[in-house]
Design brief:
The chain is mainly alpha-helical and 122 residues long. Helix content is 50%, strand content 0%. It is built from 2 helices and no strands. α1 crosses α2. The longest helix has 31 residues.
Length: 122
């Protein structure tokens, strides 16, 4: 009985074309470290500006009594800013990838049909 390679239990390795460039691992790690730091620094700046400008009144329920009174506010604002920065960076990277990335179709793909056809009914 012959052995067919399609049915083997070995995990398949991805092609080199399917893998991301190794530099993106470094970029991802750098963003994973820098994004919380930048978000926390921005949260501190926004809280200081809020104290002088009085944009938003902070409810007493969000103030911590035993430690830094603005600890919960800093934490929540840091999480919100991290999500916002991540969304903006994702959109920027997506735009750059669509501009500089590989083409959508490979050399063996058929170009999309540019026409309207009726649905075939039996």
């Amino acid at each position: 009985m012959s052995h067919d390679s399609r049915y083997s239990n070995k995990p398949r390795l991805k092609n080199e074309k399917e893998q991301a460039h190794p530099i993106w691992r470094g970029v991802g790690f750098g963003l994973m470290v820098l994004l919380p730091i930048i978000s926390y620094a921005t949260a501190l700046i926004l809280i200081d500006m809020n104290n002088t400008e009085r944009w938003i009144m902070i409810p007493r329920d969000l103030l911590v009594r035993n430690q830094d009174p603005l600890l919960l506010i800093k934490f929540l604002l840091t999480i919100i800013l991290m999500a916002g920065f991540a969304i903006v960076l994702t959109l920027i990277f997506q735009l750059l990838y669509s501009i500089f990335g590989p083409s959508r179709y490979g050399p063996t793909d058929v170009p999309p049909v540019a026409g309207r056809f009726k649905k075939y009914k039996r």
